[in-house]
Amino acid sequence: MKIILPFKFHHTPLLNPPQRGGLSRSTPSPSGRAGVGCVVFIVYCLLSISSSAQFTIIPTFTDVTCPGGSNGSASVSVSGGTSPYTYLWSDGNTTFQAANLTAQIYTVTITDNTGIDSTIMIIVSQPSPIADNADIQAPFCTSNGHIILLPTGGTSPYQFAWGAGQTVAGITSIGAGDYSVVVTDANNCTASFSYSFAETGCFVTPASCFTPNGDGFNDTWFIANSQYFDNARVIVFDRWGTRVYQHKGLYEPWDGKSYLGIPVPDAVYYYFFYQEKDDKQKNAVTGSVTILR
User: Fold this and answer.
1) Whole-angstrom Cα distance, residue 201 to residue 280?
2) Which of 39, 76, 256, 293 would staple 212 via disulfide (CB 3.0–4.6 Å)?
């Protein structure tokens, strides 16, 4: 911008002014007044002053505490230029600070009193969402399931609150049903997770044959899933209805010997497997098994 400033200069009166041709004269002042030996004049000086200096802008910000939250903030401290300053944020705010921000990129334009402006960018971040990353085993036949949480995201460490009152990262020995947990991180951010296990049928599946010849291969009668029934009862009959084998409790693989410890002949045998030893006959798993040596 251009500024015009007046300056006055006063010349010291001349003593014994020089004479020319024997004549003396006085020099008129710019105001038209005559003064002997004195010159007075006014000079107007045109000065050029440069525009406002470059801004110095120092931004500060606070990230969002929880994923999806809106408690972030940002502000700018400005020096240089010509105050006062005006502010315009990309979210419409018009002060030097902005509050209740979500995680995203913001810009703010600062304009000084001479119209010079500068724009900066501020990034407000947030933690990644809390994920359970659970190791899950669905229960089968009995209460042998588990849910082990290995959370990520948020801000560790984590706390756990299960629907049944447990406060550990994992629960074990669980059966069919619904389970829920709330995970809380160090910033008091929370995430809820639910799991459901349907009731499934559990049945034993006896092998149709075995070869108890002592070669170490298929020497005993295998009954799949029998390990889940610790109160079972197994009865084996020959073709004439004679009982050759019986066991109560957790099944121990039959080696083809009678209850007297004598190997039974190669033949087809008939079995009853009761999942509970007190079950009636109609609840038994029945079939035949062949012994070959």
Assistant:
1) 18
2) 256
pLDDT tens per residue, range 30-66:
433 334 343 333 332 222 233 345 789 999 999 999 9
pLDDT tier, 281 (very low <50, low <70, confident <90, very high otherwise): low
In whole angstroms, give the CA distance from residue 266 to residue 290.
7
Q: Which CATH number fits domain 56-124: 3.30.420, 3.90.320, 2.40.40, 2.60.40?
A: 2.60.40
pTM over 0.70: no
Residues in the chain, overall count = 293
Cβ neighbours, 10 Å, residue 267: 12
CA distance 105 to 17: 79
Give the whole-angstrom CA distance, residue 193 versus residue 179.
8
Identify the bridge partners of residue 15 per DSSP, sorted by sequence position. Answer: none
Both tokens of residue 37? 């030996």
Burial (Cβ within 10 Å: 0-12, 13-18, ≥19) of residue 58: exposed
Measure the CA–CA gap between 267 and 240, rounded to whole angstroms. 12
Q: Which residue has the tokens 């004598």?
A: 262
Helix (H) or strand (E) holding 162: strand 159-162
Rounded Cα–Cα distance for residues 73 and 107 (Å):
13
Who contacts 261 (Cβ-Cβ below 8 Å, separation ≥6)?
none
Residues in a beta bridge with 41: 9
CATH architecture of structural domain 205-291? Sandwich (2.60)
* pLDDT score at 275: 86
Parts of the chain belonging to CATH 2.60.40: 56-124, 135-197, 205-291
Q: Please, what is the Cα angle at 129 between 125 and 130, to 5 degrees?
A: 135
Three-state secondary structure call for residue 273 = strand
